[in-house]
Amino acid sequence: MPQFDMPLERLREYRPELAVPGDLADFWSATLAETREHDLAATFEPAGNGLALIETFDVRFAGFGGHEIRGWLHLPAHRTGPLPAVVEYLGYGGGRGLAHERTLYAQAGYAHFVMDTRGQGSGWSAGDTPDPDAAGLPQQPGMMTRGVLDPREYYYRRVFTDAVRAVEAVRSHPEVDARRVAVTGGSQGGGISLAVAGLVDDLAGVATDVPFLCDFPRATTLVDTDPYSEIARYLKVHRDHVDRVFATLSYFDGAILGRRAVAPALFSVGLVDDITPPSTVFAAYNHYAADKSIEVYPFSGHEAGSQLHEVAKLRWLAERLA
């Protein structure tokens, strides 16, 4: 597939004028305050993983609405002193999987927390967390239009709040250094990472790969691939909902929430990516408020730098979590 978006020199300057909700700060402050009325109640139960060098714990904590959210915490088996931590959020449709599946950051010597994504986990990796607050309104199959007519009911309000609580949960573990916590993820996980960067003001770093959930107005009109096309298909039927839908999405746009961030960030982008178009990634990058850098992979799609970029991320995290 050829490069289809703007030339790189234009991408580096692309800063779209996005409609920022006037009550954005109040909306998220109230959401998190409401959630924190529920005891975090984080528990860490040993779980067998078949690995000799990593210990895994089955994690449960109270997310949005006090709902139980699952996760894995991986720790190096041989460790001394409190560890820096990396919280990982997952791509669209995936769940936390099995206990041995995602352990890269524990192999690098960190506490590695993998958050299950509510209501997902039947696409490419299994999940264990339901979404009890799923709105009963009509939606396009998938998650993108679940509750999309009202920001208070929208699916990602619950997910982003869960993600903030995941940071709080890992910080509550006695073997984690609460001052040195970074977040990461690819695609949907990258978008969640950007949201958390805008909602948690004392992270050590944010490594966001090909972030999804950014610059919704451009993404939904530029590509016809899922998941963005779920929104387009919904609006093709609900023709009178366009303004309401994009008003809701503005509360969850990584290119908007990232303007609130203070943690340093590492982005990645593939210039042949028709899932998260390059311009939408650069929209988030160019609007990101804190220190930042971006790795550009000209001939890569949604995989971006893949294993090569993992090397770059490990090097970058080592500098921030030392």
Automatic annotation (TrEMBL):
Show the segment(s) annotated as Disordered.
Answer: 121-143
The entry marks the following residues as binding substrate, namely Y92
Q: Looking at the record's lineage, which domain of life comes first?
A: Bacteria
A Gene Ontology biological process noted in the UniProt record is: polysaccharide metabolic process
- What does the record give as the active site? S187 (nucleophile), D273 (charge relay system), H302 (charge relay system)
Task: Please list the GO terms describing molecular function.
Answer: carboxylic ester hydrolase activity
User: Can you name this protein?
Assistant: Acetylxylan esterase
Species classification: Bacteria, Bacillati, Actinomycetota, Actinomycetes, Streptosporangiales
